[in-house]
């Protein structure tokens, strides 16, 4: 994901200066020349960082920052104040408003680059922590909730299918009870590793509670079922007699794609197919077929 920086300053030469200093940093740059425009651009583009001048007519930087924090869309966007006034009282005021840093004009290119990169690194780490499942390193439910709607929108616009796989480890509660939580956690991590190994770079792999969800752009339910069955077999082979586990580990899968009913979500249909696979004894792949129920694959 490309980082983006919104430069807010009423002086055009400051935009040119910042752009010249940051142009080789692989950062997408946006500009706003007053406070109202800054609020609008920030809400539309959701930048990774805002470089915000303090001394602007009408809405000054402090008021812009207050309004950014009051808007749920922008309230977590990092703000770095940029000003010619380096007084301690203004720095404290800016930091109390939630600014991540404060840089005084005139600044050297190296200083701006270093401070911007530090702020962007901190932002990436925060986002990754908030959107990653701690046990497996896969994306979490929040990430799925954020990325499923745009993936569905893209599939509709382009006519390319989007497949969804819902997967669940069979008898995980029994493994935790009989072998202990540490063994159960190791099983979850190993299954996650196998599933991730089957994914392409463009696929999205998530752990949502006790369930895994894979989104496969450009893949229909037949292709997804093939991937799921290969994963199912590999999980059974790798974890069937693994030292320290000593219990058969299998996984059930539900498959759907965007060629289903418009009033039933692709995830709901994958969940229904997964439920059918579990009810049929587990270690199976169930494919959702719109209007005709699900079919099973061994």
Tag the structure with descriptive keywords.
alpha/beta, 298 residues, Alpha-Beta Plaits, 2 domains, six-stranded mixed beta sheet, 20% strand, Rossmann fold, 10 helices
What report would you give on this structure?
With 298 residues, the protein is α/β, with parallel strands linked by helices. The protein has two domains: 128 residues, 3-Layer(aba) Sandwich (Rossmann fold); 157 residues, Alpha-Beta Plaits. Helices cover 47% and strands 20% of the residues. It is built from ten helices and eleven strands. The strands form two sheets. Strands 7-8-6-9-10-11 form a six-stranded mixed sheet, with helices on both faces. A five-stranded parallel sheet has the order 2-1-3-4-5, with helices on both faces. Strand 4, helix 4 and strand 5 form a beta-alpha-beta unit. Helix 2 runs parallel beside helix 3 and helix 8 packs across helix 9. It is elongated. The model has no long low-confidence stretch (mean pLDDT 89).
Tell me briefly what this model is:
This protein has 298 residues and is α/β, with parallel strands linked by helices. The protein has helices spanning 12-22, 35-45, 61-70, 88-96, 109-131, 141-158, 172-179, 181-197, 221-239, 266-279; strands at 4-8, 28-32, 49-53, 79-83, 101-104, 162-169, 204-208, 211-217, 251-257, 285-288, 294-297. It is built from ten helices and eleven strands.
Shape-level CATH architecture of the largest domain: 2-Layer Sandwich
Write down the Rg: 25 Å
Q: How many DSSP-defined strands?
A: 11
Count of helical stretches: 10
Average residue pLDDT:
89
CATH topology of the largest domain: Alpha-Beta Plaits
**Which sequence of SSEs, written as H and E, runs from N to C?**
EHEHEHEHEHHEHHEEHEHEE
Share in β-strands = 15-25%
Question: What's the helical proportion of residues?
Answer: 40-55%
Q: How many distinct folded domains?
A: 2
Q: At the fourth CATH level, what is the homologous superfamily of the largest domain?
A: Reverse transcriptase/Diguanylate cyclase domain
């Amino acid at each position: 994901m490309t980082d983006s920086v919104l430069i807010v300053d009423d002086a055009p030469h400051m935009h040119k200066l910042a752009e010249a200093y940051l142009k080789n940093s692989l950062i997408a740059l946006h500009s706003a020349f007053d406070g109202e425009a800054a609020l609008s651009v920030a809400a539309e583009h959701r930048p990774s960082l805002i470089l915000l001048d303090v001394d602007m007519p009408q809405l000054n930087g402090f008021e812009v920052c207050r309004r950014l924090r009051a808007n749920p869309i922008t309230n977590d966007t990092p703000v770095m104040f940029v000003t010619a006034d380096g007084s301690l009282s203004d720095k404290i005021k800016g930091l109390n408003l939630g600014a991540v840093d404060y840089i005084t004009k005139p600044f050297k290119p190296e200083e701006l680059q270093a401070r911007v990169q530090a702020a962007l690194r901190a932002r990436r780490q925060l986002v990754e922590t908030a959107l990653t499942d701690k046990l497996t390193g896969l994306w979490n439910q929040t990430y799925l909730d954020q990325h499923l709607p745009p993936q569905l929108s893209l599939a509709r616009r382009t006519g390319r299918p989007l497949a969804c796989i819902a997967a669940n480890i069979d008898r995980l509660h029994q493994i935790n009870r009989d072998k202990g939580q540490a063994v159960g956690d190791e099983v979850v991590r190993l299954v996650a590793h196998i599933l991730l190994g089957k994914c392409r770079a463009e696929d999205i792999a998530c752990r949502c509670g006790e369930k895994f969800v894979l989104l496969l752009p450009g893949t229909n339910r037949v292709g997804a079922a093939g991937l799921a069955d290969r994963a199912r077999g590999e999980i059974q082979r790798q974890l069937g007699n693994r030292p320290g586990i000593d219990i058969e580990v299998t996984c059930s899968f539900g498959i759907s794609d965007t060629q289903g009913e418009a009033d039933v979500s692709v995830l709901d249909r994958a969940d229904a197919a997964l439920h059918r696979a579990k009810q049929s004894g587990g270690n199976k792949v169930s494919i959702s077929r719109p209007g005709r129920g699900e079919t099973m694959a061994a």
